[in-house]
Amino acid sequence: MTAKRSQFVGGEVQPNSFEGDIPVPDSLAGHFLISETDLLDPNFFRTVVLMTDHGAAGAFGLVVNRKSTAGLKDLIPDFENDPAGDIPVYVGGPVEQQYLFVLHSGIPTRFRSDHSVSPTPGVIFEPLTEPLVHFLRDEWRAIPLEDRPKIHLFAGYSGWGPLQLESELEAGAWYIHRATADIVFHADPEKGWHDALSKKGPLYKIIAETGIRPSMN
């Protein structure tokens, strides 16, 4: 989508919202962007984007509900016969898909990047670094299955330049909701969009179920 000058700022209510919805915060870091039913861009059709950064310079996020058929072993051959090789890879967005990012529920601090951040409770974001690869290669197999942290890998990301996301919000392309770990690590990613939108309330659940926006008349 092409960036344009937008007057839409934090503190306003979205044009596609219902009565009683909360205003858009100044920063969307820690929130989901949930695609509107009319957003037909194949990169974002029925997607849920976890925003990790949003400010004057632009915005950065990862699509959390678009699981690929690949696993870690398909990207790093050293994991071919390793238990960590089956960790799923998601398509984080259309930008720089040669780069890998990680969302996890918590690994030992000594293996984390200095750039790791927690956009919402129970979720930590960071790039895939050598210490994290070391953890997966040398520590993962020793952790009982039920005790392993949740880890999703992402190829690429979703990015917006200055004011670009604001323009899309003004156009009603996205719904906004506070991010939660249960959607980030959804057991069935294909239901992620439905369940994330349903969390916004009964009227949004109707949209999720039918694809039709109910009239307020």
Mean pLDDT equals 90
* CATH arch. level architecture: 3-Layer(aba) Sandwich
* Number of discrete domains: 1
Q: β content, as a range?
A: 25-35%
- Count the helices. How many? 6
Overall geometry comes to: globular
CATH class: Alpha Beta
CA gyration radius, whole angstroms: 18 Å
Provide the low-confidence segments as ranges.
1-9
Order of SSEs: EEEEHEEEEHEHEHHH
Strand tally is 10
**Main β-sheet, in a few words?**
10 strands, mixed
Counting helices, strands and paired strands, the structural category is alpha+beta
| Helix fraction bin | 10-25%
Terminal Cα span: 31 Å
CATH H-level homologous superfamily name: VC0467-like
Task: Describe the protein in words.
A hairpin with a 2-residue loop joins strand 7 (117-120) and strand 8. The chain starts with 30 loop residues before the first strand and ends in a 7-residue tail after the last helix. Strands 1, 2, 3, 4, 5, 6, 7, 8, 9 and 10 form a 10-stranded mixed sheet that branches. The protein has helices at 72-75, 130-138, 164-170, 181-184, 192-198, 202-210, and strands at 31-35, 48-55, 58-63, 67-71, 88-91, 95-104, 117-120, 123-127, 151-160, 174-178. The chain has a single domain (1-6, 28-217), classed as VC0467-like (3-Layer(aba) Sandwich). With 217 residues, the chain is an alpha+beta fold.
